[in-house]
Design goal:
alpha+beta
Length: 268
């Protein structure tokens, strides 16, 4: 009987997950600790087709001073490389048009003698409509050195970014790799948000800016291809005038307004 009672007690412990305290009362089972948060996504985002052109805006003076203090230059070269390879935004030098991409970076110093010299890095990317100044979307990336085995795993950051060595310290220093990881994390979120936006939310969906079209009309008038008022409206008359000009220069007659067309008109 004693053996049977012990067996029943063991079964009840397994089924109920509880035991008796020395006083005979029930004792609540200790819950297992929650799983650790997943590591941040540090992969280069890709888009099936470009979502627009953007001009990169330098970080503010405070952010640049923080970066300079850990041996890092402005992140614009790194971002230009990343955005170009992602096929989401065109951000060539002197690029303008649809968006402004504003960057801000913050870091926390690590203890004396630590490597990397920073314990974490945070990057914020803000995409602004270049025509209206209105924010379109924003994303923040944050990484800790502890996410990468205290910095030992940082060498893998940017493995899917070609020619990463051209970014200097962002590729060959632990501090640069950590900031690069934060920027990539933020950019992967920003790209996903951009792709989820409805088509009408993208400035490119609304055609060339009115001011650009008006300037093209003025230049076409000066060169004798257009006789209407420079009203900034892309009508049939303006399209035909653009095509006539393009044909006269042995260009493909697209009839589309663009900054490159305006530059061509001004050069004549």
């Amino acid at each position: 009987m004693r053996f049977r009672a012990l067996a029943l007690c063991a079964v009840s412990l397994i089924v109920c997950g509880c035991a008796e305290t020395p006083s005979g009362g029930p004792r609540t089972a200790v819950a297992p600790p929650p799983p650790p948060p997943p590591p941040p996504v540090i992969a280069l985002a890709h888009c099936a087709h470009p979502l627009g052109k953007a001009a990169l805006v330098e970080p503010d003076d405070k952010a640049r001073a923080l970066l300079n203090g850990i041996g890092l230059p402005s992140p614009t070269t790194f971002l230009r490389l990343v955005t170009g390879q992602s096929n989401c935004l065109h951000t060539g030098k002197g690029e303008a048009g649809d968006y402004l991409l504003k960057t801000n970076v913050a870091v926390s110093p690590a203890g004396a003698g630590a490597s990397p010299k920073i314990s974490d890095a945070r990057a914020t990317l803000l995409l602004v409509n270049a025509r209206t100044g209105a924010p379109v979307t924003a994303a923040e990336g944050m990484v800790r050195a502890s996410d990468f085995a205290g910095g030992a795993g940082l060498t893998a950051i940017g493995a899917d970014v070609s020619n990463l060595s051209s970014t200097g310290a962002y590729s060959n220093s632990p501090e640069g790799r950590l900031v690069a990881a934060a920027l990539l994390n933020a950019y992967s979120k920003l790209a996903a948000q951009m792709q989820a936006l409805p088509p009408q939310a993208h400035p490119a969906a609304h055609g060339p800016a009115k001011e650009l079209i008006a300037n093209i009309q003025s230049e076409l008038t000066r060169l004798g291809f257009y006789s209407g008022a420079p009203d900034g409206q892309m009508g049939g008359k303006t399209k035909a005038a653009i095509e006539d000009y393009q044909k006269s220069k042995n260009m493909k007659p697209t009839g589309k307004a663009s900054q490159s067309l305006l530059d061509s008109l001004k050069s004549n």
